[in-house]
Design brief:
Elements lengths: L43 H14 L3 H7 L13 H14 L3 E4 L13 H19 L2 H15 L1 E9 L4 E7 L4 E3 L13 E8 L10 E13 L6 E2 L13 E11 L18 E2 L11 E2 L7 E5 L17 H22 L3 E6 L23 E9 L3 H21 L4 H4 L10 H7 L1 H31 L14 E4 L7 H13 L5 H10 L7 H11 L2 H11 L1
Antiparallel strand pairs: 1-14, 2-3, 2-11, 4-5, 5-6, 6-7, 6-8, 8-9, 8-10, 12-13
Length: 545
């Protein structure tokens, strides 16, 4: 008997394709490549879950079931409900905008602005310029959709000397293999990370299958292999010498050179073929001159000890299966309703001159059947069953939306006229608020870490305009995820600022959150103050000229 297996992906155990063997290993038809000998044992079920979730997103779950022996699944109807759930959760997560904020930058325009506020404003502008050049919102869309669908996303930062700035890339989480110590806290940052994948063979070019592994590892600083350890002062901490640095290795192995049992972290270095950088530098433990690993793993849910996140579809997979099966039954019932089964009694069928057998009767508009005395025509009416199936579809969809914390109003399946009041609408969106809050909480630290690494890589690369010294904290702020009553918020701001309940800067930020096109809060405050003082406005224009 198969043992009960509980892990981060046990919510998929109800599928035989996911846990088809005694040890819980997935079916070979799910993904033959996950049976590769070089894969870590603890990554097999994770990669299988990614593959299974991807089939739901691309309407291929029935095709996968057919490959594993369920022939009836080939006729399964899939109408994109999983993809709609993912896209809806992604849209609410990201909000209408994403903005980089450095605390203190809003006071840079004050008359008595401190040097810290001015420095914060400069760093904030540099980070925003970098984000625009590196298409950060576009890359976030790609990465975050994987995080919402699969549970994880991966960013990679690297200094690009040709561009003179930090480059940002996204990787499929199936290529991400952190090496976690047995006694380490699951929330700790790993000291060794692999990005690895298998490159298939190409018989036409005579290239055999091989494994590529990019490794980032923190280790002691040495002047040469085998030498004594030394220290280094990094630009972001000139007063604190460090004995750690990050080493990069990028190599390939032929599958034929790997023995059974040699896992990803144990591949033989004597069989490795190291890649070479554009400048001729061999990528074999290359010292990157930084004391951190520039790989950021983003999980969709708050880490509960498994390191990896959970898909937004995790709790509703069985409901999605039931929905697809009901859609299939509904499609079959609609076929018999639109083209009903007819039974004729007393009709003479035309004979086929070749075979001498009666020709099948075809029912078309305008068809007339001549019936003998006592003849009759019976029609099978399946409209009642079709109505029941359609009601069942809506019932399952509503239940899946509730369990996924995606209310029907967020999916766009509710008529606005059916909502009794704005308060009722706000109450119905409560589960969505908690979902978005939890997903943003899981990401807050990761994006702050990404922006910190961006600053430090620019400092390490001696980029123009990036000063040396301590790295300033920065965070990524997501815009509102729900429609807001902009007029009500505007009235609230006018009354609050006029009564002195809160400052003008706070009011401007409230208007930004409501979706008003205000780019920079401090500049907007200056414009408002200058507009209320024409002399100041003229002086300001003169100074700018």
């Amino acid at each position: 008997m198969r043992a009960l297996l509980t892990d981060a992906w046990s919510w998929l155990n109800y599928k035989p394709v996911m846990a088809s063997t005694v040890d819980g290993r997935p079916h070979r038809a799910l993904a033959p490549e996950i049976q590769a000998s070089w894969l870590p044992e603890d990554s097999i079920r994770r990669l299988a879950a990614y593959k299974l979730l991807a089939t739901y997103d691309s309407n291929q779950a029935g095709e996968l079931a057919a490959l594993t022996g369920n022939e009836a699944a080939a006729e399964r109807r899939e109408f994109g409900d999983p993809s709609a759930f993912v896209d809806t959760a992604l849209a609410h997560l990201l909000g209408k905008s994403q903005q980089i904020i450095v605390p203190g930058a809003e006071h840079a325009g004050d008359e008595d602005a401190s040097p810290k506020a001015v420095a914060a404003a400069e760093v904030q502008q540099r980070l925003r310029d970098w984000a625009e050049l590196e298409l950060l919102p576009l890359r976030m869309q790609a990465a975050e959709r994987k995080a919402v669908l699969l549970g994880d996303a991966v960013y990679l930062l690297a200094w690009d000397p040709a561009k003179g700035r930090v480059s940002l890339r996204t990787y499929d989480p199936g290529f991400y293999f952190p090496v976690m110590d047995d006694d380490a806290d699951p929330g700790d940052y790993p000291t060794r990370v692999h990005l690895a994948w298998e490159i298939p063979e190409d018989p036409r070019k005579g290239v055999k299958a091989r494994v590529r592994r990019i490794t980032f590892e923190l280790g002691p600083i040495t002047t040469a292999p085998g030498d004594r350890e030394t220290t280094r002062r990094y630009p972001w901490a000139p007063d604190r010498p460090s004995h750690l640095t990050c080493y990069l290795s990028d190599a390939e192995w032929s599958i034929d050179d790997l023995r059974h049992g040699q896992r990803l972290d144990e591949l033989p270095l004597d069989k490795a073929k190291f890649r070479t950088r554009r400048d001729g530098q061999v990528l074999d433990r290359l010292d990157l001159l930084i004391d951190f690993i520039p790989v950021i793993h983003v999980s969709n849910t708050v880490d509960d000890g498994e390191h990896f996140g959970q898909s937004v579809l995790a709790k509703v997979m069985q409901a999605l299966d039931e929905l697809a099966e009901t859609d299939t039954d509904s499609a079959r019932a609609s076929a018999t309703t639109g083209a009903p089964i007819i039974g004729l009694a007393g009709a003479r069928a035309e004979l086929d001159r070749v075979t001498g057998r009666p020709k099948p009767l075809a029912v078309q508009p305008g068809t007339i059947f001549q019936l003998a005395d006592g003849g009759r025509m019976d029609v099978l009416d399946t409209s009642g069953q079709l109505a029941e199936l359609r009601a069942r579809v809506e019932e399952i969809r509503d239940r899946a939306a509730v369990n996924a914390r995606l209310p029907a109003v967020s999916l766009g399946t509710v008529d606005p006229t059916d909502v009794p009041s704005g308060y009722a609408l706000q109450i119905s969106l409560g589960p969505l608020d908690s979902l978005v809050d939890s997903m943003r909480l899981a990401r807050a630290h990761k994006y702050a870490l990404l922006l910190k690494m961006v600053q430090r890589l620019h400092q390490a690369g001696r980029a123009h305009g990036w000063p040396l010294g301590e790295t300033l904290p920065a965070r990524l702020v997501f815009g509102p995820h729900m429609p807001t009553d902009r007029q009500a918020i505007l009235d609230e701001v006018v009354k609050g600022v006029g009564a002195g309940v809160f400052s003008l800067e706070t009011g401007i930020r409230m208007l930004q959150d409501a979706g008003y096109p205000i780019g920079d809060a401090q500049q907007e405050v200056q414009r408002i103050q200058a507009g209320s003082n024409p002399t100041q406005l003229r002086d300001g224009d003169w100074r700018r000229e």
